[in-house]
Amino acid sequence: MADQLRTLINPTLLNLVVDTIIPYSQTAPLNFAVVARNFIGAPPVANDVVQKVWPVLLALSSLGLDNIPDLTTFLPPASDPEFPRQALGLQLLVDQMPRRLCKGIDTRWTNAYFDVISLQYAQALDALPEAEKPHSWARWKELGATLDYWVIARTWLVAPFVHADQVLIHERAAALTEETRRHVEQATRTTDPYRAQRDAILSDVYGFPRVVAEGPPEWVVTLQDYTYWMCMLMDTHKPIVDKFGSYPYRNAYFGRDDTPEEEEWFETTNDFARPSRDVRERLRRDVEAGVWTALGAGREE
Questions:
Q1: Contact 165, 246 (CB under 8 A)
Q2: C-beta separation of 8 from 58 below 8 A
């Protein structure tokens, strides 16, 4: 199976994944009103891309978490100029493609399987020497990328830390987000207007669902507008995990019971991101039986 993965996961596929999730010029200025809208409401993945990505997800799902190979070995050497883009493609493959393609009962694979793989991979990339990290501006600048493109690429490379359930991981997510914010502040000689609200943002357990429901403000049109709004959105995840120790809407995927406080959170947020009752019941049966419904069952529903 490892040999099959090495055939499936190749530079052509990883570049395709990057261009699918980030369908913008790497070298030209971007319209961030469009970028922001697409971030909240991403278009469906094209069928030809699905046909190339799905076999990889199936192959990974058949291995089991204890047998996942070191994903960094699928990349060129860190010194290779193509390393940042290939590293990004692999991150998007295991972090974003399951989110785009897995529905219904398959969402357990996204949250309790691929997110585990994605975080381990993100941590491996983050542990590289500073000059080799694929989320650094210096690496993308060497490729001729604009700061516009780098902000988007870095957001996705940091995303697995934001998706994690662990409180300590969110400390790293917050630090990486702050690095992004400061870099753009310095590059554009502006100040993030959300800084004045940061204490409130980092203590508001309802901020994340509210910001998602509201979508990007109309004034998000420039690089700095987008960066500051995105950094705020990333920060809104942290208070949820700080309060509950994990995301309430992921409880069903791990067989965790909802606490009374979490039930109140669901009531207030209109069941934000919570699986349907039918899916929750099926997940409960699977978890209690120690089995996984095969990946792909959700696509048939």
A1: yes
A2: no
CA angle 19, 228, 212 (to 5 degrees): 75
Q: Please answer whether residues 220 and 226 qualify as being in contact, where contact means their C-beta atoms are separated by less than 8 angstroms.
A: yes
pTM beyond cutoff 0.85: yes
| Tens-digit pLDDT profile for residues 4-50 | 898 999 999 999 999 999 999 999 999 999 999 898 888 899 999 99
Asked if 229 contacts 36 with a C-beta cutoff of 8 angstroms, the reply is yes
Alpha-carbon distance of 83 to 192, in angstroms, equals 31
How many other CB atoms are found less than 10 A from the CB of residue 118?
A: 26
How far apart CA 120 and CA 32 sit, in angstroms, is 30
- What is the spatial distance between Cα 256 and Cα 105, in angstroms, rounded to a whole number? 16
- Write down how long the chain is: 301
CA gap 212, 201 in Å, rounded: 14
Question: How far apart (Å, rounded) are the C-alpha atoms in residues 199 and 201?
Answer: 5
Q: Which residue carries 């983050």 as its tokens?
A: 126
Q: Are 6 and 78 a contacting pair, CB within 8 Å?
A: no
- Per-residue b/e over 68-77, b at no fewer than 16 CB within 10 Å? beebbebbee
DSSP reduced 3-state for 275: coil
List Cα–Cα distances, 153 to 48, 183, 221, 258, in angstroms.
Answer: 23, 14, 18, 35
